[in-house]
Amino acid sequence: MARLGVVDEKQVGTGNCYSIPSFTMSHTTEATRARPRSQESSGWFTIPAPLAQLFKKFPLLTYPPNELPCRSPGLRDTPTLYVFISDEDALKDLPSFNPSCLKWQTFLKLAGVDFRVRPSNNHASPTGALPFLLPPYTPSDSKSQRPVPSNKLEQYALNNGKAELPKSLGTKLDAYESLLDHGIRNAWLYTLYLSPANLGLLTQLYIAPTTSSPPVRATILYQLRHAAESEILKSTSRDAIIPTYLYHEAREAFRALNTVLADEEWFFGSRTPGLFDATVFSYTHLILHDELPWGNRRMNDILSEFPRLVNHRNRIFQRCWLAST
C-alpha cells in the first residue's frame, strides 16, 4: 500500500532545501536506487545548464567598500563636540551659530580642552538637544564611548582642561544668568525666529541644510516658530508677544551686564575668563557677527550702545579663535 512521504519537522524554517513530498512504494526501493543521478536532480527548481554557466561568471567585478563620511565616529584620539554648525565652518573650527552650542564650545576652549567640532542636530543627540561631546576612544575603558551631555560639560572641562579657570561663584551667578536666560534670550528668539525680516537667515541656518522639499521646509518653519513663540510667552507670562517690550528688556539686561563688567577684562574681576564670560559671548558674538545676514538688526543696535560688552566680545574671540592663527 502506498504511503505519503513525510517531511522532517526539524527542517522547517531552518533554510534547508527539501523536495516536495511524493508517494513511495516499499518494493521499489532497489529500483529507486538504480535510477540515474541526473533524474534525482531534475525538477522545478533545477537551473538549466546554460543559465548555471552564466551565473557562475557573476559578480563580474567587486568594488571595495566605501569609506565612512568624515563626520562618522571612528577611533577617536580627540574629543568631538557635536554642535549646530555648517560643514565648512566645522572644518575651519569656527564658532557655532547656535548660542547654546557656542557657549560650551567657547568654554571648552577657555578651559584648554583639545577638541574638534562636528555638525549635528537635535535628533542625533542622546538627550535630544545639542551640544554633546564624545570623549576619546579607549579600548580598555567602556565609559569612553559614553557621550557627555551639555549639563556635564563644565565638569568635563574642569577635569580635562589645561588652562586656569576662575572659581565657581555658585548662587551668586543666578541673578545675572537670569538676565541672559530671559531678557536677552527672549529678544534673541523673537529676532531670529519670529521677525519676518530674518526669515532668510533662519532658513539659511536651520531649514535649508535639512531639506530641499518646500512642504517639509514649511513644516519645519512652523515648528521652529511655534516653539519660539511658546517659550517667549512662557518666559514673559504674557498673552501676546510685544516686540518693543522684548527689546526694552534686552537693553536693560545689557545695561546691567555692562555695569557688572565695569572696566575689568573679565566678569567679576577674575584673572581669566570663565563660564559666565563664555555665556555672555555666545550671544554678543552672534549679534555682532558681520557674516550673519541679519535683516532685523535691532539687537545689534542695542548691544552697540555698550562698548564694554563689545570689547569683551572681541577679547574672547581673540583669545579663542585668533590667538593660534
From TrEMBL:
Residue stretches making up the Thioredoxin-like fold domain: 99-198
Residue span(s) of domain Metaxin glutathione S-transferase: 250-316
GO cellular component, one term: SAM complex
Biological-process GO terms, alphabetical: mitochondrion organization
Domain of life: Eukaryota
InterPro entries, alphabetized: Glutathione-S-Trfase_C_sf (IPR036282), Metaxin_GST (IPR033468), Mito_Protein_Transport_Metaxin (IPR050931), Thioredoxin-like_fold (IPR012336)
This protein's name: Mitochondrial outer membrane protein
Species this chain originates from: Xylaria bambusicola
